[in-house]
Structures are given as structure tokens and as C-alpha cells.
UniProtKB/TrEMBL annotation:
Every Amidase domain range: 25-469
InterPro entries: Amidase (IPR000120), Amidase_CS (IPR020556), Amidase_dom (IPR023631), AS_sf (IPR036928)
Lineage: superkingdom: Bacteria
Claim: GTP-binding is one of the keywords in the record: no
Database matches in PANTHER family: GLUTAMYL-TRNA(GLN) AMIDOTRANSFERASE SUBUNIT A, MITOCHONDRIAL, TRANSAMIDASE
Keyword list, A-Z: Plasmid
Name the UniProt record assigns to this protein: Amidase
Length: 490
């Protein structure tokens, strides 16, 4: 109990429950860690420490009364500053300067579920405008730095949460994932980013309640170990009356941390068929995959069956995501602020504006259906592969962490191995399972020759979250990564 920053969320909740430490002491330690480390990382864009301490005091009173306690009672956490809301807290939709005074009047599903489980929110974490890239940087707050090298980016779009967890400010924080935004920063920060099966966890979106299927968008968590991901999924899952796409599923993952994967068939794709991969990423992942054989699984290198150029897939993801952004801009405009006007568009990144203009009103229903047909090809390829294999493992992202820029517009690489890619999302094949809805996780594969983290991606059959988490836990047992956090000096 001498270093609360090193405790997992599960360990913290148990220590509070058993009265070995108070929720107030835990919160005070988290605040001290945030105040010490965040100036070097820029993970948080808003904090509410007084409110958090008041809630911690109430959590201690509940323990003293002998109340029934939730799975994360007294555990500090944070929400992402994007499509995530808590009444009275600001919401800038990813660092849009004109929205700094925009105050939310509703709770998102993540806050509802986590507070019901006893978790206590301390603030909001940094993300890019509208979540429209795999890095975290914006005009209002600037970039979030990587705890392993503060000159480099933490990844995105949930980069603030990943940096906060990796650096020990928190044991668990929110990520949202419409193209890999939980798993991308997890890969770059040596953390676990879990994204559930489509329909297992709710997402409250308005005015269009169905927008979170185009592509599939999720709320989830970033943690330092697999068990915390399992506990968090248990908190978040379940039907919600405000989400027409979410329904109750069998909990197949509660014992996933203990099950093992002996006898499983695993397909290993070193490049998802069509994505160029940096040598450092390729080498670390190729070595990491051997761990599954040690755990008793059968591993075979495979082709998934993707046949189109990688740029076509990433362009389709962008085209499918842009209508969600345009709809948000229209809702903001109705309240009196036109973010796309000449007066206010400076708060949005040039690449975002370019895509919004490219996929304008001229993007027809016929265009949409053509894109969905290609998305269906991806789904069919994954389904055919899962007919033969229990899991698909691959690099989470194809590039190592990039240097931060000073213009609010940090992006990923535009070329890998001489091949041109989209610097926003083209190095993030994570978006493929946002097309398909299969459960996916990024776990730390190891450190590259540069000393920076590399992520290993594990995907499973739809609704088979337990298989994915069992494989992640088996990997963690045989190749633990907690020791790498000792490299972080903040």
C-alpha cells in the first residue's frame, strides 16, 4: 500500500472494500500524481478535484455503513473529452477552441455505468477534434505526449486516457473507439485497450440513435492489465433503453483471466494482407506471436482475404465517419455556432475540413451503399477466417510513435516502406474490426529497439469476448509488461 499509483483498479477496489486504505487516500494519491505528471504529458484538459474528493468521502461513508459496493467502488477514473458527457462539465468535442465554454447537461452511458459501479471521475482527457485521427492533438489544448518519450505522441484518439493510465495517474480511464481509438493509443503506451463485441456495451447518441453503427463506435476502457479490462467490461455491458443497437449477451468472459487457450487455433496476419508495416513493429509482433504457442495454441500464418488497396479501405472509413461529424456540426450550428464558417473553421484541423468538404451533400445514398458493399467484403473475409480460426492476431498499428508537432496537427506517417498511406488512419488497421463488429484488444507486445511500445492486436468471433480476453490474459502471464512502466520517469 506504499505506492497507490501502482495498484490496479481491481486491487484498489478490494483494498478500499477491506478498509486497508480509504477512498479519500486513494483519491489524494491520484490527484498528487496528476499534478506531478500531467504538466509533462498534457493528458487532462479538465479536472474537478474538489468534486472527486467529496465523492471519495461519500464512498468512505458507504464502506463504513456496510453498504453494498460496486465492482469499482472508490476507484478514480476519467472520461474522454469527445462524445462523452457529465452534467456541468465542459465538452469541447476534442479540443475545438470555440467549445471551451460548452457545458454538458446529460450523462453518457460510460459515466452512468462507471458511477453505478462506484468509480469516481476526476476529469476529462485529451483527444483530437471529433476523434478524426489516430493521434491526439488539437487547436485548443495541443498534443498529448507519450510517457515513454515525451517528444512523441501518445496515439489517439483516446491518447489522454492512455497517457494517464500508463503513467500511473489512474488505473482505468475511458476510451471511445470508432476506428481504433482505444487500441491505437494502448499500442503506443504499453497499455491494454479493449473494445467489445458490437451490441455488448451501450452508446447513447443523439439526435441520431443509429449513428454508432456507421462505423461501429464503442465506449470502453484503457487499463494496465487484462483483469481490469475484464472487470470494466462487466461493469459496462448490458442493454440500455437509450441504445437501440445494444442488447444483453451471455457473459462469457468473467473467468477469462484463468481459462487459458490450450487447443485454440490462431491465425497470425503480419500485415492484414495489404497494410505496409514498419520493420520495428513487424519484428516485435512476430516474436510476440510465439507466446501463444507456448500457451498451447496452434498458430498459423494466414491471409484474411482482403484484396483491395489499403488506401481504399481507409478512405471508406473516412467517408463513413464524416457524416457523423457533419451531423454534429449541424446540431452545433442550430445552437448558433457555425464551426464550418470562415470565422470559426480555424479551430478544426485542415485534414478534417478537407474530408468534410469532400464528403459533402454530394455524398449520395448510392455512394454510401457502394461503400457499405466494400465494408461487407471485409466482414465476409473476417467471418470466413473465423470459420477456421478462433482468433486473429496482428500488429495493432503499423508504425511506431511519431514526434509531436507544434501546430496542433500531429499526424501519423504518410508513407511506410515507400508506400503512400493516409496519415490520419491508414497506419491503423484497427478500423477493420469497426467495420465488422468483432471484439478486439491491443495488448503490449514488447518494446522496440527504440525503447518504445508496440501493440499486439487480438480479434475474435462476434460475441466471443471471452476468447479474446482469455488470449490476452494468457499472453500477459507468459510475457508480462508491468516492468516496462519502470522506464517512465515523470
Amino acid at each position: 500500500m506504499t505506492d497507490l499509483a501502482k495498484l490496479s483498479a481491481t486491487e484498489t477496489a478490494l483494498a478500499i472494500r477491506e478498509r486497508r486504505v480509504s477512498a479519500t487516500e486513494v483519491m489524494q494519491a491520484a490527484i498528487a500524481r496528476i499534478e506531478a505528471a500531467d504538466p509533462k504529458l498534457n493528458a487532462f484538459v479538465f479536472t474537478s478535484f474538489d468534486e472527486a474528493l467529496d465523492n471519495a468521502k461519500q464512498a468512505d461513508e458507504a464502506v463504513a455503513r456496510g453498504d453494498a459496493l460496486g465492482a469499482l467502488h472508490g476507484v478514480p477514473t476519467a472520461m474522454k473529452d469527445l462524445f462523452d458527457f457529465k452534467p456541468g462539465w465542459p465538452s469541447t468535442l476534442g479540443g475545438i477552441p470555440q467549445l471551451k465554454e460548452n457545458i454538458a447537461d446529460m450523462k453518457c452511458g460510460f459515466v452512468e455505468s462507471m458511477e453505478a459501479a462506484g468509480a469516481i471521475f476526476v476529469g476529462k482527457t485529451n483527444s483530437p477534434a471529433m476523434g478524426f485521427r489516430g493521434t491526439t492533438d488539437n487547436a485548443a489544448f495541443g498534443p498529448t505526449s507519450n510517457p515513454f518519450d515525451t517528444t512523441r505522441n501518445a496515439g489517439g484518439s483516446s491518447g489522454g486516457s492512455a497517457a494517464a493510465v500508463a503513467s500511473g495517474m489512474l488505473a482505468v480511464a475511458e476510451g471511445t473507439d470508432g476506428g481504433g481509438s482505444i487500441r491505437i493509443p494502448a499500442a503506443w503506451t504499453n497499455t491494454v485497450g479493449y473494445r467489445a463485441s458490437a451490441g455488448r456495451t451501450p452508446l447513447l447518441v443523439r439526435p441520431n440513435a443509429f449513428a454508432n453503427t456507421l462505423p461501429y463506435i464503442f465506449e470502453g476502457t484503457i487499463t494496465r492489465n487484462v483483469q481490469d479490462a475484464i472487470v470494466s467490461l462487466g461493469v459496462l455491458q448490458g442493454a440500455h433503453p437509450g441504445d437501440p443497437n445494444c442488447h444483453d449477451m451471455v457473459n462469457d468472459f468473467a473467468d477469462a483471466g484463468l481459462r487459458g487457450i490450450k487447443g485454440m487455433k490462431i491465425g497470425y496476419s503480419p500485415n492484414l494482407d495489404v497494410f505496409p508495416v514498419e520493420d520495428e513493429v513487424r519484428d516485435v509482433v512476430a516474436d510476440a506471436v510465439k507466446v501463444f504457442e507456448q500457451a498451447g495454441a496452434e498458430v498459423e500464418e494466414i491471409k484474411i482475404g482482403l484484396t483491395r488497396d489499403q488506401r481504399e479501405y481507409s478512405d471508406i472509413w473516412c467517408r463513413l465517419f464524416v457524416p457523423i461529424m457533419r451531423h454534429s456540426f449541424e446540431a452545433i450550428k442550430a445552437s448558433g455556432l457555425d464551426l464550418l464558417s470562415d470565422e470559426h473553421r480555424h479551430g478544426l484541423a485542415p485534414d478534417l475540413l478537407e474530408w468534410v468538404e469532400r464528403v459533402g451533400p454530394g455524398y449520395s445514398a448510392d455512394d454510401l451503399f457502394r461503400d457499405l458493399s466494400v465494408r461487407s467484403e471485409v466482414f465476409d473475409a473476417y467471418q470466413a477466417t473465423f470459420a477456421k480460426y478462433d482468433l486473429i492476431v496482428s500488429p495493432t498499428v503499423t508504425a511506431m510513435p511519431v514526434k509531436n508537432t507544434t501546430d496542433g496537427n500531429t499526424k501519423g506517417p504518410s508513407r511506410i516502406n515507400g508506400i503512400e498511406i493516409d496519415p490520419l488512419i491508414g497506419w491503423c488497421p484497427t478500423f477493420l474490426t469497426n467495420f465488422t463488429g468483432h471484439p478486439s484488444v491491443s495488448v503490449p507486445a514488447g518494446l522496440g529497439t527504440s525503447g518504445l511500445p508496440v501493440g499486439l492486436h487480438i480479434a475474435g468471433r462476434r460475441q466471443a469476448d471471452g476468447d479474446v480476453l482469455a488470449a490476452a490474459a494468457a499472453f500477459e502471464r507468459l510475457r508480462p509488461w508491468a516492468q516496462h512502466y519502470d522506464r517512465i520517469a515523470l
